[in-house]
Amino acid sequence: MRSEDLAKLIGVSRSTITRVINNYPDIPQATRDKVLKAIEEYNYAPNASARKLAGATNKMIAIIVLDVKDDGVTHHVKTTDDTLIYNNPFFSPVINAVSDQANKMDYYALISIAYSKEDLKKVESIFNQKMIEGAIFVGTQEAENELIFKLIKQNHKIALIDTNEIYSKKHDAIYINPDNFEGSVKAINYLVELGHKNIGIITGNLNKLSAQERLDGFKETLSRHGLVLNCDHFYHGDFTENSGYDGVNHILRAHSKPTAIFVSNDTMAIGAYKAIAEIGLKIPEDISIIGFDNSFISSYLTPPLTTVDISFADIAKRATTLLIDSVENNKKVGIVEKIHATLIERESCKRIN
Amino acid sequence: MRSEDLAKLIGVSRSTITRVINNYPDIPQATRDKVLKAIEEYNYAPNASARKLAGATNKMIAIIVLDVKDDGVTHHVKTTDDTLIYNNPFFSPVINAVSDQANKMDYYALISIAYSKEDLKKVESIFNQKMIEGAIFVGTQEAENELIFKLIKQNHKIALIDTNEIYSKKHDAIYINPDNFEGSVKAINYLVELGHKNIGIITGNLNKLSAQERLDGFKETLSRHGLVLNCDHFYHGDFTENSGYDGVNHILRAHSKPTAIFVSNDTMAIGAYKAIAEIGLKIPEDISIIGFDNSFISSYLTPPLTTVDISFADIAKRATTLLIDSVENNKKVGIVEKIHATLIERESCKRIN
DNA sequence: CTGAAAGCGCTTACAG
DNA sequence: CTGAAAGCGCTTACAG
């Protein structure tokens, strides 16, 4: 059914149909009602392509997940093996939250997952084809910066979630990141409050902003409490399960052992749990472990892992809201926001004072 | 950049541009090369809306996730609480796999998650607006049947994943389900091979096809081995963690206890683990547990859960492939397929012979 | 082999 | 307040 058909059926012009659908003023209530009734009755919906071509918005945004393995460096939200990320604990809530928030704001969400530089061309083509009004990028690494900056320069509306680097207002984009620093502060304050004075850390790969921020929060909080970090209790991991495992073996081989270890993400905490079990130690009796991310599995570990929740769903929602706002108001954007982190207290930390 | 601009730039007509893009025959290689080079150079991509409006395909399918809570009955793939399903162990791999397979076949995927009957109208409007060439539905319940049948009758291409009922070739749609029966057979054969003769079962809600099929496979395999099901060892659960917990408490209160319990999904197995721990029993020393679904957390349970893997990624890929095939060949479809289930042997079952 | 032109179904100034 | 008409950027018969 075309608007023309509907128009004939009820004796108005196509223009009138369009006008009531698009909420033009100055239409008598009677006309409006008649049209609305007919729309309902005949199940009419304007052809999306025709609308878009004629200049209206198609109310479509894209959520673009980048999992491009280009440099051998594993991003902490990505899997380490070559299997595709069909159930990635980080991407999934983001995808769902973006889609959900978009729907709430009466938008549609296109999803595109790029695994290779080849796929990146397809991503670019989504913009060139004018399929969307804006896009949210997740999982960005260095490799994609060039493309993203180019898109921003072309005036496309872009929101970036959890970017490794924050480019602040230099670029007209929306940057939403978790407050990693705050998360670490909360974690360490909690451990100190429990009486821990000897706290070790397994970091993520420190060329990642998130890893660095988590380390910064850790260090600052330690020194605020007058505590020092024993060098033997520092392990530079890379956000993988294996590095959590290795980190524990490294730290617990030191002469003086810490009473708690801050593990910079939950994935590494899994490895840490394994190593601790193998050494024959008990959590939290012999050593307290605190994680980061509040990933899906953390509550299923034994014992359930105390961790820092950075709600990627909240981050995704906020990014979506800001993106659609900027699309609708066609305003220039240079937004940087951090989303609060909260401590999730479970059973992997013991009070020792 | 429009095709006309490009055309002028290299001295051909718009038609020629279109023809090389759409791979028309009878274009001299020289012309083709010239156009291709210009497309590359100027980053030209045909406007998606214009293409679609002019009659070409927009290569877009939708993945529609239904999580409509209408009847108080919890579908086994849905969460039991009211929080949105941002990390559902079932939906996420489906979404990712559909998107991935679509991209591989050079299609785009729109994602829409419906939580209410209100949202269902938006879903219908996606079809009415002609935004897509076809759609894959996941999580269907009775409530949506009416809409889906209507869409099928309107000749929309539809694939249904894990439908509660299979409507066979009565409806021109694609039905892809896991082979639940086969999965149960494999699980029980495995337990029998380990020497178990006394096997209990916690079922899902039996108005669900999947629950019934899993039960059927269980019963048939038992009787094929000349084993009987003690009525006290049967518990009618509903696929929720709580019912797994209740199921164990019910079954282990019987006079004669089983040596193994077949728990019809991993979510219930989590509850079962809890109940068993509370009773003071050890898995698998005191009782063997086998699950179903191979959900994300199953390998993180203690001990890691032996379970049946029904790859929803495979199901989703197959559905996507068949859907796009049917879109491209515009063929009538009435396809019903089952995807193999495989046993994932971990550490929750003990050999007792 | 290739260009000119109609047409896809809307939206939006422009008239009235 | 509302209709007629141009135009959005393609695709596809139709000519040549």
List the helices and strands and how they pair.
The structure is a homodimer of 353-residue chains.
Chain A (H helix, E strand, L loop, with lengths): L2 H8 L3 H8 L7 H14 L5 H6 L6 E7 L24 H14 L3 E7 L2 H12 L5 E5 L3 H12 L3 E5 L12 E5 L1 H14 L5 E5 L5 H16 L9 E3 L4 H11 L8 E4 L2 H14 L8 E3 L16 E4 L1 H18 L5 E5 L1 E4 L9
Parallel strand pairs in A: 1-2, 1-3, 3-4, 4-5, 5-11, 6-7, 6-8, 8-9
Antiparallel strand pairs in A: 10-12
Helix pairs in contact in A: 1-2, 1-3, 5-12, 6-7, 8-9, 10-11
The first copy, chain A, binds a DNA duplex (16 and 16 nucleotides) through α2 and α4.
How does this structure look, described?
The structure is a homodimer of 353-residue chains. The first copy, chain A, folds into three domains: 3-46, 434 Repressor (Amino-terminal Domain) (Orthogonal Bundle), CATH 1.10.260.40; 60-178 and 312-339, Rossmann fold; 180-310, Rossmann fold (3-Layer(aba) Sandwich), CATH 3.40.50. In chain A, the strands form three sheets. The first copy, chain A, has a six-stranded parallel beta sheet with strand order 2-1-3-4-5-11, with helices on both faces. Chain A has a four-stranded parallel beta sheet with strand order 7-6-8-9, with helices on both faces. A two-stranded antiparallel sheet of chain A has the order 10-12. The N and C termini of chain A lie far apart (74 Å). Mean pLDDT of chain A is 89; it is low at 71-87. Helix content of chain A is 42%, strand content 16%. In chain A, strand 3 (134-138), helix 7 (142-153) and strand 4 (157-161) form a beta-alpha-beta unit. Chain A has helices spanning 3-10, 14-21, 29-42, 48-53, 91-104, 117-128, 142-153, 180-193, 209-224, 241-251, 266-279, 312-329, and strands at 60-66, 108-114, 134-138, 157-161, 174-178, 199-203, 234-236, 260-263, 288-290, 307-310, 335-339, 341-344. In chain A, helix 5 runs parallel beside helix 12 (312-329), helix 6 (117-128) runs parallel beside helix 7 and helix 8 packs parallel to helix 9. By secondary structure, the first copy, chain A, is α/β, with parallel strands linked by helices. Chains A and B meet through helix 4, helix 5, strand 2 and helix 6 of A and helix 4, helix 5, strand 2 and helix 6 of B. The structure holds a DNA duplex (16 and 16 nucleotides). Chains A, B: This is Transcriptional regulator, LacI family. Chains A, B: InterPro entries: HTH_LacI (IPR000843), LacI/GalR-like_sensor (IPR046335), Lambda_DNA-bd_dom_sf (IPR010982), Peripla_BP_I (IPR028082). Chains A, B: Residues 1-55 form the HTH lacI-type domain. Chains A, B: Keywords: DNA-binding, Transcription, Transcription regulation.
